[in-house]
Amino acid sequence: MAVGKQYDYLVVGAGLFGAVCAYRAKQSGRKVLVIDKRPQLGGNIYCENIAGINVQQYGAHIFHTNNRQVWDFVNSFVEFNNYRHSVLAKADGKIFNLPFNLNTFYALWGVTTPREAAQKIAEQKTPLATEPQNLEEQALALVGRDIYEILIKGYTEKQWGRRCPDLPAFIIKRLPVRFTFDNSYFDDRYQGIPLGGYNKLIEKLLSGVETRTSCDFFAERRQWEAWAEKIVYTGEIDRYFNYEFGKLEYRSIRWETEVLACPNYQGAAVVNYVDGQIPYTRIIEHKHFEFGAQAQTVISREYPAEWQEGAEPFYPINDAKNTALYGKYAELAQKEENVIFGGRLAEYKYYDMDEVIEKALKSFEAENIP
Ligand code: UDP
Fold first, then answer.
1. Residue ID of nearest Cα to ligand 1 atom 10
2. Mean pLDDT in the chain?
3. Whole-angstrom Cα distance, residue 35 to residue 10?
4. What range does the domain containing 163 cover?
5. Does residue 282 sit within a domain?
6. What's the Rg (C-alpha) of the chain?
7. Quick one: which of 144, 133, 191 has its CA closest to 167?
8. What is the rounded distance in angstroms from the CA atom of residue 330 to the CA atom of residue 20?
9. Residue 115 within a domain
10. Whether the predicted model's global pTM rises above the 0.85 cut
11. Model confidence at 369, in pLDDT bands (50, 70, 90)?
């Protein structure tokens, strides 16, 4: 370590990206400090125990991956349960299965076979001559008018606060379309929730690592930069560069959490409310992620919200304008030799947890740590 430096690595943000980097740095004998502005560690996978139930404070996270290396990595810290995610959508009081599959097509149109369903979708589809230019075109080309209007349009527009023609096509590609009666939300081979909740994973990753919570990097930026040889930065990339080119836009969310005196409120971990006039997008009933048998239950209504300064930025908005602006910041980031930028906010990317872990592991391979 150079003279005057106190740490080999300062990790700004104790979410998954930061925690994996801190683990790898500690494992290789480097001196590392993790700071986070929140009062607790874990970033958006942090859980609070309410009425004996692990309540995911920052929205539902279901671990899923096809990457064996990532799966082995997380399993070296915690075991996972056999939870398989499937989602219900409530539209005009009726329940539909998600992602779109034969159960959904049966409930919508009464079709009972793959052939009938494919025929129905073919009638409904708007074929495209070129690549879809936006989410509406993508949805109409993929599943057609009925599904777009009943299950996609209202949900998507309230989630993102933008019209579907103004949103990028890739968002909807996250959802599979299946001609089987398979309600699994994810196609991935490995899935589950850590036994005992996500905090266990973070605790294990950060075991033996020096951490400071309620500690804002920007309050004493000069000091941190002077103390650390290298920085792993997981916060908003535009803030790191003092908004030099202007501000990136984010989508925020707020949750209203309630303890209810009944053992089972909705019979599933996630029910989406797809009608445009209902202000929340979904209700999460946390106990179902861990097959809880408690007498009470805890639910969270999820309200999408416009992001303003001071609010929590949850989703990057990868439309053309913001993507171009991010590109300018990414160029600056490349020139910062002693800083690793990673995670949803620093890379302005709609990342899943397994991708974040993979990226963090790769970033540290590049560090040539033995
Ligand atoms: N989506 C939809 N209707 C639904 C669920 C999802 O139209 O009932 C679309 C919507 O555009 C959303 C995208 O699929 O932004 C991805 O949904 P997902 O549930 O994967 O989003 P996340 O859980 O990451 O917020």
1. 156
2. 95
3. 8
4. 105-172
5. no
6. 22
7. 133
8. 22
9. yes
10. yes
11. low
